[in-house]
Design brief:
The chain has 5 helices and 3 strands, in the order αααβαββα. By secondary structure, the protein is mainly α. It comes from Companilactobacillus nantensis DSM 16982. Keywords: Aminotransferase, Pyridoxal phosphate, Transferase.
Length: 154
């Protein structure tokens, strides 16, 4: 029975159903795909504009976002002494998900700390509170780096 199952399983794993292909062809032929792309690009542009606006409003001057011309990622260079891995973990505990850019480089190549922000899986309304949280978490982190404040919790 197992060989028969595996034979049929490999068939389904290897081939796209004809019905799915027909649906996709109709979707594309009727211009629905182009309309979908236009809508998605418009939404991403709106979200990126909001992210940049909030970054300029809430992040200190020395912590501005890298402003891309397209796409749905931007990068934030962190202040000296702020570890991107620790910050990413602290933000995750606060339900703010960012990506640690350190994982994209070999350890000897990384000169500064960066986090990457994505607008793809976030609602427009979540961007402002998210940037505020990132900014305040970085500020708290910097205060705790200062030996004067060791042992104090704000």
């Amino acid at each position: 029975m197992i060989p028969t199952f595996l034979k049929y399983k490999s068939y389904f794993d290897s081939y796209t159903s004809t019905i799915s292909q027909e649906i996709l062809a109709t979707y594309m032929e009727n211009g629905m795909f182009e309309q979908h792309l236009k809508n998605i690009k418009q939404r991403y542009a709106q979200k990126m504009s909001e992210l940049i606006r909030c970054g300029q409003l809430y992040l200190p001057q020395n912590q501005q976002l890298n402003t891309p011309t397209t796409g749905f990622y931007t990068v934030l260079k962190l202040p000296k002494g702020v570890n991107s891995t620790i910050l990413t973990h602290k933000l995750m505990q606060q339900n703010v998900l960012v990506d640690d850019v350190a994982r994209m480089f070999l350890p000897y190549q990384q000169k500064s700390s960066f986090i990457r922000l994505s607008i793809s899986q976030v609602d427009l309304e979540q961007i402002e509170p998210g940037i505020k949280q990132i900014s305040s978490t970085i500020s708290e982190y910097k205060v705790n780096l200062n030996p004067i404040f060791q042992g104090f919790h704000l």
